[in-house]
Design a protein that fits this description.
By secondary structure, this protein is of the alpha/beta class. It is 30% helix and 22% strand. Helix 3 links the parallel strand 2 and strand 3.
């Protein structure tokens, strides 16, 4: 099986715990909501901070603003021009772009040293097209951190959330898919490799068994996988 970066690898748990304490303190200080379940995304991303940063599918993530508070030049790109992005972005001098990730924006070509693509790609119907568009925004040597949902079988967009998360109130489900390691490789990693975007920092995904419900991370239903890729 191909290797993927694996989440919930606790070899660096002490370091991760300290770092997440700092992120939580930032949220408290600035009246932002810290989501503990997101610790792995924050931790992996914060290992790769550099230069100009683009956070895609930002929604109400606090991560762009934390990175800006550390002194980085951060831009968010999301389909919705929300009041949250405008208000908090102004406070932390984070630029916001409203746009669809399925549409390539040539003005962003090769502009960013780090792109954070966290729990986003599973919510896009044309996932391969979107990931290639986003990769086009990486500067030479730039890094992208991708996290997404994994399950024991591939469920095509838009049905995964409705199929797996059955305890939500009617109308609260979102459109999404779940990947298997094999479909993530074929739909996301292989197309990136074909244009020169390579995985880095690999850990063995097989130390999580996504067929074992006791190892599933999100409410015992499914788990997360992460890949870190580099341009060149």
């Amino acid at each position: 099986m191909d290797k993927l970066n694996k989440l919930y690898d606790i070899r660096d748990w002490k370091k991760a715990h300290k770092l997440m304490g700092e992120v939580a303190a930032f949220c408290i200080e600035n009246s932002l909501q810290y989501a503990p379940l997101k610790w792995f995304e924050y931790y992996y991303t914060l290992q790769h901070l550099k230069g100009n940063i683009l956070d895609v599918g930002s929604a109400q993530s606090i991560l762009p603003y934390y990175m800006a508070a550390l002194g980085y030049d951060v831009t968010t790109l999301d389909l919705e021009d929300s009041e949250f992005r405008q208000t908090v972005g102004k406070k932390f001098n984070v630029a916001s772009i409203t746009g669809d990730l399925r549409d390539y924006r040539p003005e962003l070509k090769s502009k960013f040293d780090l792109i954070t693509n966290l729990s986003v790609i599973e919510h896009i119907d044309k996932d391969t097209q979107a990931i290639l568009n986003i990769a086009g925004y990486l500067a030479p040597g730039g890094v992208m951190v991708i996290s997404t949902d994994f399950y024991q079988r591939y469920i095509e967009y838009p049905d995964a959330n409705r199929t797996i998360v059955i305890d939500r109130p009617p109308g609260s489900h979102c459109d999404s898919r779940t990947y298997t390691p094999e479909t993530f490789i074929s739909r996301i990693i292989k197309p990136l490799e074909d244009i020169g975007i390579k995985r880095i920092g690999e850990t063995d995904y097989r130390n999580i068994n996504i067929l074992d419900s006791t190892q599933l991370a999100v409410r015992g239903l499914y788990t997360f996988g992460i890949a870190v890729v580099k341009n060149g």
